[in-house]
Amino acid sequence: MIKELYEQICAGDEVRANLIRLRDELKNEENRREFAYLLGGDFSNLTALLKDEDPKVRKNAALILGKLESEDLLPVLFEAYKKEKTLFIRADYLKALSELDYRPLSESLEEQLSVLRENSEWTPEEWKHVSEEIRILQTMVLRCRGIRHHRFAGGKEKEDVILLTNRCQRAATAEQVQKGKITMLAGGLRVDGASLKEVRPIRTYSELLFPLKTRAELRADQPVLCGEMLAGPVLALADRLYNGAGAFLYRIDVRGQAAARTSAQDNSPSAGNGAVSDGANADWFCVGEYREKKGSYIRKLSTALERASGARLVNSVTDYEIELRLVLKKDGTFTAMLKPSSSFDERFIYRKEVVASSIAPVNAALTARLALPWLKEGAQVLDPFCGVGTMLIERDRAVKAGTMYGLDIFGEAIEKARRNTRRADCIVNYINRDFFTFRHEYLFDEVVTNMPVSAGDGSKQALRQLYHDFFVYVGGLLKEEAVLVIYTSAPNYVVESVRKTAGFRMEKSFLLNEKNQTTVFVVAWKRP
């Protein structure tokens, strides 16, 4: 197939169509090796096509040459790129160059990037293509230099922020905010005039976002106008938050109401008002009568944003520094927020190792916060199902513990827990052992744990029995007036086991999730 397609191309037979078929075949690595062997280093027939009168022939020839990974093609492709006048295929030459080691061209790429940025005479239609060219050039230049993200500078003394928190326990976060005006939201809280120095270290929010103010409402059915209005506020905030000059890499996350789905009959969105964002079948963005493919919609918005920012905002799927989050409201307008890069949030930087059953660190921190009145400084603490150590580390962050022990039957989890704990500069004695075989020379003040979600044969009865056996066994490891802090998605088994097992008394329960009934319990123990 490869040989036949190439021979037809050389004979001038349906060149454009056969180039497209050849490109498709070259997605397979074995086919690429076969094609390279066939050419034997002679690229002349393909490089001649870079001068063809059909721009799509030139485009596909360039992309095929890029797949051949020959450094001899670097000057040929770059020279063709510089001479190319058809805007909509210039970015394809850069994609081809990106397949090669283009570092020798770094200075030329930077010069070309400056030329494109400084030209302010592009029409909207031209800018649609030029912005894609700039985006790829920017990525290439950054890779030549080594990608260097901006460093967090601190922002103003007072900033408006939104803290996304557990919906049922928003007050646990609100009570830690001492400065600023707090407004409770459905999924968290807004703090106007917050001190970033104060709120950043709070461990019980899942995300910190900065609301963006624009000169008018952002109508979701006007993506170009949205991009133009957002450029100034996004840049002003980014410059305030981060040190360093140059462009900011960003991504756009559009969220909204119920996703519209593609109709199998007419390949158009089904009726209904809603924004399509994440998940399967999220192909369309829809607001009232406005319908557009999600990818096309985001490209329009991004193109306008980059142009209005003078290319200081560069869209990047990877290595982005900031996220522009747009949330669709019922009236068809957006709420716009900026989420800083991951380097902004260093609260759980220790947790680099996880297993499938690992608790989210913010949930472990929230558990410790809710149980704070019952936690004792210098306590001897045991986690019978410790996983990768998150519960113990967050318990120690809330109130400094004494000696801590973590048990888990899963050896890989124990090894990961040790590595996480070293990064957290914490001391925990980890043992790869079944809790029900554990003995110790002294008793414990506290048990802090995330209970298993399955046991034995995976049945509800097996899990119920595990809970019962846990409460029967754990009493033998506890000091007088010890406490248990339990995070669980099976609250009924905890309530039942406490009621049926002598010596335990329910102190407090905190519902975290109404849908799956995740609950934190504080249980007191007194030897019967």
The gist of it:
This protein is of the alpha/beta class. Helices cover 39% and strands 21% of the residues.
Topology diagram in text:
Elements: H1 2-10, H2 15-25, H3 29-39, H4 44-48, H5 55-67, H6 74-83, H7 87-98, H8 106-118, H9 124-145, E1 151-152, E2 159-165, H10 170-174, E3 181-185, E4 188-194, H11 196-199, E5 205-211, E6 218-219, H12 223-241, E7 242-243, E8 248-255, E9 284-287, E10 290-293, H13 294-308, E11 313-315, E12 322-328, E13 333-339, H14 361-370, E14 381-383, H15 390-398, E15 404-408, H16 411-423, E16 429-432, E17 444-450, H17 460-474, E18 478-488, H18 491-500, E19 504-513, E20 518-525
Parallel strand pairs: 8-11, 8-12, 14-15, 14-17, 15-16, 17-18
Antiparallel strand pairs: 1-7, 2-4, 2-5, 3-4, 5-13, 6-13, 9-10, 12-13, 18-20, 19-20
Helix pairs in contact: 1-2, 2-5, 5-7, 6-7, 7-9, 8-9, 9-13, 12-13, 14-15, 17-18
How does this model look, in words?
By secondary structure, the protein is α/β, with parallel strands linked by helices. The protein is built from 18 helices and 20 strands. The strands form four sheets. Strands 2, 3, 4, 5, 6, 8, 11, 12 and 13 form a nine-stranded mixed beta sheet that branches. It has a seven-stranded mixed beta sheet with strand order 16-15-14-17-18-20-19, with helices on both faces. Helix 7 runs parallel beside helix 9 and helix 9 (124-145) crosses helix 13. The longest helix is centred in the first third of the chain and has 22 residues, at 124-145. The chain is elongated.
